[in-house]
Amino acid sequence: MAGLRIEKALNNNVLIAEHPAYNEVVLIGKGIGFNRKRGDFIDTDNVEKLFVLKNEKEQENYIKLLPFLDQNFHEVIISAIDLIKQRTNSLLNEHIHVALTDHLMFALTRASQGMEMSNPFLVETKALYRREYEVAKGVVEFIKEKTEIALPVGEIGFIALHIHSALTNKELSEVNQHSQLISKLVGIVEERFEIEIDRDGIDYMRLVRHLRFTIERVKRGERVEEPEKIAALLKQEYPVCYSLAWKLIKVMQQTLRMKVFDAEAVYLTMHLQRLQKKFK
């Protein structure tokens, strides 16, 4: 992409341009709209931190956001998304420009007014998406450095979910649902075993990882091998864990509205038995 003809400058950071393959596109970049007018050409090869919105719906939603964006905050958010792109070294789903810009604008406004929003799924998010969490932590540090506004720690979790959504092309609602489901499942395990699992410990990490992979297999419709003899043995030897495994599976089925194959109960029972043994 060497040069694009500018149709309209929407503000200092956003342009509408004519693209040879996608017709009208929205260009986002720190200061790219300054002193630009219709008919000018922008040399995109020489513009760093430039994002192109090709999807019409995303363009429309982004443009709707513009009247509500503080110019200085907007520039910081553009740079923050570029930081995410660099640190993940990945192509991000276009939706992150709408969803994360909207979220961060409200978060910065709230924080500047001394308001804080709690994140009940912060621990689960950190355990589920460690890479995204670390990148999000960097984003919060970057924002503090640029704006002198310290976002609350819960925001790291929210930003991490946006990053995961953009990397995996999953709807944010689906990503949120998985975090909430895992939180619920862990709570059921703790209640049944009458234990409290250290959220910073290896046991919690292993349990969350196991539940996450189970959910992902279910979503993909991936069938795991069913070792029937082991199933019968586990049912007999570890009835409490076997029963709990099935309770967790039923909750998964109700939440995801998808079938969970019986073999998952075997692997879940073995995991639960190891966990229970540690707390005896």
Detailed description of the structure:
Strands 4-1-2-3-5 form a five-stranded antiparallel sheet. The protein has 280 residues and is an alpha+beta fold. It has eleven helices and five strands; from the N terminus they run E-E-E-E-E-H-H-H-H-H-H-H-H-H-H-H. Helix 2 crosses helix 3 and helix 5 crosses helix 6. The relative contact order is 0.08. A hairpin with a 3-residue loop joins strand 2 and strand 3.
Shape: elongated
Structural class: alpha+beta
DSSP helix fraction:
55-70%
How many helices? The count is 11
Residue stretches low in confidence (pLDDT < 50, at least 5 long) are none
Number of strands: 5
How far from one another are the termini?
63 Å
- Beta-strand portion reads 5-15%
Query: How can the largest sheet be summarized?
Result: 5 strands, antiparallel
Oligomer: single chain
Order of strands across the biggest sheet? 4-1-2-3-5
How large is the radius of gyration?
23 Å
Order of helices and strands: EEEEEHHHHHHHHHHH
Mean pLDDT: 90
